[in-house]
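User: Predict the structure for this protein chain, please.
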Amino acid sequence: MSKLAIKGGPKVREKPFPSWPIWDESDCQALVDVCRSGQWWSVGGTKVKEFEEKFAEYCGCKVGVCVPNGTIALVVALKALGIGYADEVIVTPYTFIASASSVLQCNAIPIFVDIDPETYNIDPSKIEAAITEKTKAIMAVHIAGLPCDMDAITEIARKHNLKVIEDCAQAHAAEWKHRRVGSFGDAGAFSFQASKNLTSGEGGIVVTTDVEVGDRAWSIHNVGRVRDGAWYHHPVMGSNYRMTEFQAAILLNQMKKLDAETARRNENARYLTERLSKIDGIKPLKRDERVTTHAYHIYIFRYLAEETTGVPRSKFIEALNAEGIPCSSGYVPLYRSGMFDIDPDACPVGCPFYGKRIVYKDLYLENCERACEREAVWIMQSVLLGDRKDMDDIADAVEKVMSNLAELRE
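Assistant: Here is the predicted structure, written as structure tokens:
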């Protein structure tokens, strides 16, 4: 009889992993309290303001501005930093679409720089070669909750007088050298979408240590008004990007658990890494020693056996799922997503103010391509909220599949 479950053998694991989100009656009560208060709107309400202040302080920032989602948080952050027509923003191609689409929404130009093959974050050693007279900012995207090399990125930004936007959508509570992400750049943007480590179903926030940037973000998110200004005075081009009191109430309650859940993810991830590191053909992503807290929104390891065994990653992932371990392959390079089939002669990339020509479909960034096509295997954050036995089940299943790859060639 075949050993692998995909071929009819017994599964390593039958029971499900922890579900997400994790909630209790206190979350329900938080919503009921807002409902009964009759104050559902952040204007005049207290919950959004309280969360903005608490989360900004948590990140080591002075100002927080809550918005409806993480994509809008990036757009508001970029606009608050003055990013606009024909400006270039350096960004990783290994990320969610919003990291780059937010740049386009500001009529600016995403410039993709390849990733470090061992961390899957943007490779700082490749950034300077991409800087031109049009470059205005670097977006540091903390993929999977692993902080970027913020020492290198901030040094490059200072050298070239560039803004730094941190995309922290996957990095709640993550720390670089005991300092929380979101506080290194000129502005940081977080998401509270349903899968995120801190969630209200949807939601986002812009954080910054620069009060002037915070004020501009506030104006942009509140229909162009200014703090302490008249209600119908709109000196800034903005929109209605306000969060509701219901979302903030959930976030305030969920935030009480964030540190404990982050600690659990880190404990389990370290143990899982220790076990997976011993399996030939499997390599967990490198964790820099300066990363003092990893958010582990996604646990990523590299499948390196395709070339030597002839078994593609897709077959490995299919077999691992059959063993009861939920996993996936993750991203495609952003420049290969349909949105970047942009007419190079149309705005914004063909804007006369830009004066250049970019054909995204012609890009080929080797490390990103390899991660997306052959290597990356994702396990989502809720799995890491299990116990030691759950981690052993993952490692046992990986060992089992890797030891029986020959069955996948039959």
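The longest helix spans residues 258-276.
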